[in-house]
Amino acid sequence: MTREIHDQRPMNAETGRRGWVRGVVYGGVVLGTIGVVYLATRSSGAPSAAPAAHDHGAATVANKEQPVTLSAEQSRRIGVTYAVATLGTLDKEVRTVGQITYDETLLRTISPKIDGFVERLRVNATGQPVSVGQPLLTIYSPMLVQAQEELLLARRLQGDVAGGSGDARRGASDLLESARRRLAYWDIPASEIAAIERSGQARRTLTLYSPAAGYVLEKNVVGGQKVMAGDPLYKVADLRTVWVEGEVFEQDLANVRIGQVVHADFQALPDEHRMGRIATVYPTVNPETRTARVRVVFANRDLRLKPGMYATLRIAGAERGSVLTIPRDAVLSTGERNIVFVRDGSGQLVPREVALGTANDQRVEILRGLAPGETVVASATFLIDAESNLGKALGGMGDMPGMELSTPPTPLPMQAPKGATAPAATDHAGHAQP
């Protein structure tokens, strides 16, 4: 008996697995059959057009908008406001982002005019401030030693011919001035030349002084280094004046010109507002970004504007007088047309196509489509447009809180053929209504 039971267990497990597989197959067949019957039933009926999708992000407006009627309570509940198309001035302001950079006209590279060896660095760190005449380094140069000896020789010669003829005195004086000029051309100051003449001895090293004021941007020299004439030892920038360079879109270039006043705000200086003027409008347009670069000059005597900072630039354009304008939010742009809703004498909101001109942050110019004094919807324009286009197709938004809008009545639908069964009415959820 025990052996028989053991022999039957594999058979029962195998039978169970086969039954489970068989059930899955039968279930799939049943579901497939139901799907085929459903599709056949759908295709055999009268074709019905699916409602077109409404792209809210693109603010799509249908080609045939309908007037919309709102009561005062309905306007209040959905936040509709109105504005009047008025004639007045329209100032155009161009905004862009710029970055502070150095004034290129105040950049200086300091290089020696002689060969030699650096004995000691007086300015030895990047970012260190320097002033005009400040000692930079001391240098040993055989050329400087030789020039000093020639200077002292000419000095002694002048003393020796002091009692001679006029030509001898003039020759000695010219020789002395030539030796002095030679040292001066190598950036040795007059005070140090005079000290050499007084001492009567040539110095082993001489000091080179800064010809410019500013901050050291680059330092390419260390103590003991051999330098050659023309080597760029320091790069110095004067930051008392800085540039801010920004990009202006191609369509805004007509409102930008040299000499215009520019208002600037800086992220690093939230409590400060600065003003500058446009110095340069670049003569080319970037073909990839369709922008042109503008350069604005700012005074920076307190040195708080640092190269690399970002700035928000506001360029005040010329005012245009006697133009018809409305708020920018009153216009609904589709990419192909610009629509506004005008309130007529009966209170209806009638859609109307308009042509736009220049604009600023608040108002936009209307070239045609409106008359002065007409009232337009200034806010919630998209909701009005949605009801105008989709209210009839989707049953309106009457069941939504605050959306009890209404459109003018439309003709009743044609009576169904005799003997046909009218479809049951359903609510918005799709449930049949009595």
Describe this structure in words.
Strands 1, 2, 17, 18, 19 and 22 form a six-stranded antiparallel β-sheet that branches. The protein has a six-stranded antiparallel β-barrel with strand order 3-12-15-14-13-16. Helices cover 25% and strands 32% of the residues. It folds into three domains: 68-89 and 321-390, conserved putative lor/sdh protein from methanococcus maripaludis s2 fold (Beta Barrel), CATH 2.40.420.20; 95-104 and 240-320, Efflux pump adaptor protein, beta barrel domain (Elongation Factor Tu (Ef-tu), domain 3, Beta Barrel), CATH 2.40.30.170; 109-237, Beta Barrel (OB fold (Dihydrolipoamide Acetyltransferase, E2P)), CATH 2.40.50. The chain contains six helices and 22 strands. It is an alpha+beta fold and 434 residues long.
Key phrases:
single chain, 434 residues, alpha+beta, conserved putative lor/sdh protein from methanococcus maripaludis s2 fold, Elongation Factor Tu (Ef-tu), domain 3, OB fold (Dihydrolipoamide Acetyltransferase, E2P), 3 domains, six-stranded antiparallel sheet, six-stranded antiparallel β-barrel, 25% helix, 32% strand, disordered N terminus
Count of domain modules? 3
CATH topology of the largest domain: OB fold (Dihydrolipoamide Acetyltransferase, E2P)
CATH superfamily of the largest domain: RNA polymerase II/Efflux pump adaptor protein, barrel-sandwich hybrid domain
Specify the structural class.
Answer: alpha+beta
> What's the average pLDDT?
80
How many DSSP helices? 6
Distance between the termini: 70 Å
What kind of oligomer do you see? single chain
Radius of gyration based on Cα positions: 44 Å
Form type: rod-shaped
CATH architecture of the largest domain: Beta Barrel
